Amino acid sequence: MPGPVQSIERAAAILRLLAQGSGRLGLTEIANSLGLARGTAHGILRTLQLVGFVEQDEATGKYQLGAALLHLGTSYLDVNELRSRAINWADALAARSGEAVRIGTHLQGKVLVVHHVFRPDDSLQTLDVGMLLPMHATAIGKVLLAYDANAAATVQDAVQDGELEQFTRRTVRTHKELSRALATVREHGWASDADEAGMGEAGVAAPIRGYGGLVVGAMGISGATERICDSGGRPRPELVGYVRDAARAVSRDLGASRW
Amino acid sequence: MTQRYVMSIDQGTTSTRCILFDQRGRLVSVTQREHKQHFPRPGWVEHDAVEIWRNLERIGPEALAQAGIGPGEVAAVGIANQRETTVLWDRRTGVPVAPAVVWQDTRTDTLVDELSRRPDAHVVRERCGLPLATYFSAPTVRWLLDDTDGLRERAERGEVLFGTMESWLIWNLTGGPDGGVHVTDVTNASRTLLMNLRDLDWDPVLLGFFGIPRAMLPEIRPSSETYGTARRVLPGVRISAALGDQQAALFGQTCFHRGEAKCTYGTGAFLLLNTGTEPVASTHGLLTTVGYQIGDQPAVYALEGSIAITGALVQWFRDRLGIISTAPEIETLARTVDDNGGCYIVPAFSGLFAPHWRSEARGVIVGLTSYITKGHLARAVLEATGWQTREVVDAMNADAGIALTTLKVDGGMTSDNLLMQFIADVLDVPVVRPMVAETVSLGAAYAAGLAVGYWPDLEGLRRNWHRAAQWTPAMDPERREDEYDNWRRAVERALGWIKPTAG
After folding, report:
1. Taking Cα atoms as reference points, which of B296, B420, B129, B488 lies closest to residue A115?
2. Cis before residue B355, ω within 30 degrees of 0?
3. How far is CA B253 from the centre of its chain?
4. What pLDDT is stored for residue B430 in this prediction?
5. Chain-centre distance of CA B317, in angstroms?
């Protein structure tokens, strides 16, 4: 087992220091208190600031604990904030793919639709925002299961009691099948469904990541199986490309630098 | 080489953006650069026109590079611009003679008071359709001519030129001091207080009223027509459209038929209704303005209703009260309750705009009880935008004599589903969001593409418009009337708050 990571130990010490006393300290005070070089302390503070754990007062330059620390237990990213940050990219994805776009987050073992863009053909469609979708039968749900440990645990519990709910004969049925499907999602970085939530319906989705790569939601297209998939039943590569590009663009906007 | 794209330049109040669109109206590349806001004295707001031009010199070629194309592949460029902001510059050197005076600047308030007291002040509204107010260009030009020694004489000799931002950019693009074309379009000219709304030309009576020499004014041209060819930044590209930003949004939303309206929700909101080829004089506090003019076709007019505070109320909730940490969280907070709990907020922070025009009104929160939570307040914040929209739509229906059947929306607040549903509920018409959110830029691109035959006709543009979302009214009519009545009673309580100063 590897030893402790020094920079994390130091970051923890800085947070403890800021949690004491007045809670507002300058760079020199922090560096001196912990016996760190100013450059080292500054680097750690900058990173803590980036993830929202530390805030710097604009006028005095002093550091204090950030609001994100206080909300550690609650939702990481407000769903309405997510929609507002993703809306232009979702529109562009609908325009490029010609399909409806949805963004989903995990809510108590289901996919909560937080944003929906109509298929750009001006046919009669109604907003799905607020609707709940099954996790194991939709591309968006599979992405959330593959990357969100809490979501996976909720559904795992349900599987223990027996089979997953069946919507068609192609819906993933067993715990084993689901694990295999999710391993593929993690390997490829995207998910799909074809005739699994309903016959003739298909979808492709990719993860939306925030700071540090944390998956905060999934974004995907959905439509008729014959449009989404090729004759072999696989999603068309250009559509997969559009979905991944759009999800990556949103992730970059949310601060996920490496994806 | 095939010309596969159209470029738009959106010269806005805080930044300048270049966007390339393809034939289906889809975004191909976007570049943007902010410029500085200068506040030299209380109430003064200035821009550096040279900085804005330099920004365009930079982001124009960047937009081409991002798409991997050369200027030869651009069929035309169209400009949408912040309206009324005034630039005066030296024809020979191309250097502005003063900082650009922004539409928000109130330095002319005393001058406007003096002018409105003149017995012939009624000619202004009769001839140009607008009330005398600080944010239109004519009082600003007059102020600048009075303020600088010798400027009036130079303007009379045609040595100093006036323009709003589109004129300034077109003049520079077409060569500046070396043969630059000095033009404006009907929509921008309609915001100067100097253009006759029916003749679509500078009105000698208005020029006399404001004391502004004709020689400094640009030629008024249609919104969609080739004005010249760029010699700089985008060499060889035809400059084929100019519209004020709100008119550009009307065009980008393809509101081409009489009775079609759009509302742009930002810090404030601007609702424009296409009233067809006849200007409609408002008796309900709206502005009569030119919507657009395509080539030699008759101009299309619009009624405009502006709401001072919509998104700004959410920002106030966030920045001043600190109840939320980001603007979209207003929806999350509002959804923690089912209704407003009897609470209403009238955000008359600097008076009320359309349709009331009451500068002495100030904001009120009414209906407070110990039952009210921050969730109810968040509801009241969003509902204020809904009811203010309803008041403007009622005024438009009354003035134009046509009932609105759908409202097309754009702007940042359209990502708020609760608000969009509420607007549909209180207007009792469907609210529709288009797929391209950048309606201002799209409108300028459409008008430019139309002028050069890149798009064949208005119907072709309509086919590019796609619905991204629609909210259908679902409020019980009795409840709607009850709530509207409560809102109107809340507005009454906001009126007359500032006491008239003695004398």
Report:
1. B420
2. yes
3. 14
4. 97
5. 24
Q: How many helices (H) and strands (E) does chain B have?
A: 16, 23
Distance CA B221, CA B503 (A): 46
State how far the Cα of B174 lies from the Cα of B185, in Å rounded to an integer. Answer: 16
Q: Find, in chain A, the residue whose alpha carbon is nearest to that of B436.
A: A91
Distance CA B489, CA B243 (A): 38
Please, are residues B25 and B95 in contact by the beta-carbon 8 Å criterion?
Answer: no
Task: Judge whether A32 is closer than 8 Å to chain B, CB to CB.
Answer: no
Distance CA B287, CA B283 (A): 10
Q: How, if at all, do strands B27-34 and B219-221 pair?
A: unpaired
Is A120's Cβ below 8 Å from some Cβ in B? yes
Counting beta carbons within 10 angstroms of the beta carbon of residue B406, is it exposed (0 to 12), middle (13 to 18) or buried (19 or more)? middle
Please report where in the chains the tokens 């982001």 appear, as a residue: B59
Interface touch A80/B325, C-beta < 8 Å: no
For chain B, say whether A175 makes contact (Cβ under 8 Å).
Answer: no
Q: How many Å lie between the alpha carbon of B458 and the closest alpha carbon of chain A? A: 18
Q: What pTM value is reported for the model?
A: 0.85
User: Are B13 and B105 in contact, with CB atoms under 8 Å apart?
Assistant: no
**Short-list B451, B408, B448, CA closest to B432:** B408
Q: How far apart are CA A183 and CA A151, in angstroms?
A: 15
Substitution target from A70, A71, A84 for chain B, most B beta carbons within 10 A: A84
Closest CA to B278 of B299, B304, B305, B248: B299
What ipTM does the predicted assembly reach?
0.81
Is A129 an 8 Å CB contact of chain B?
A: yes
Residue A78 Cα, gap to closest chain B Cα (Å): 7
Write the pLDDT tens digit of every residue in B51-106: 999 999 999 999 999 889 999 999 999 999 999 999 999 999 999 999 999 988 88
Whether A120 and B468 lie within 8 Å, measured CB to CB: yes
Give A52→chain B minimum CA distance, Å. 12
pLDDT in tens, A73-100: 555 678 999 999 899 899 999 999 999 9
Element of type H or E holding A65: strand A63-65
Residues A112-125: tens digit of each pLDDT: 999 999 999 888 89
pLDDT in tens, B152-181: 999 999 999 999 999 999 999 999 999 999
- Beta-carbon separation of B329 and A81 below 8 A: yes
Residues of B with a Cβ under 8 Å from any A Cβ are 24, 26-27, 325-332, 412, 414-417, 435-437, 466-472
Alpha-carbon span B153 to B145, nearest angstrom: 9
Angstrom distance (rounded) from CA B385 to CA B327: 14
For an interface test with A, give the residue of B17, B326, B336, B415 to mutate (most A CBs within 10 A).
Answer: B415
- CA angle, A173 as apex, A168 and A175 as ends, to 5°? 160
**C-alpha triplet A148, A154, A160: angle, nearest 5°:** 130
Strands (E), B157-207: 160-164, 183-185, 195-196, 201-202
Phi, psi of B36 (to 5 degrees): -75, 145
Nearest CA-CA partner of B448 in B241, B155, B183: B241
Residues of A in contact with B326 (CB under 8 A): 78, 81
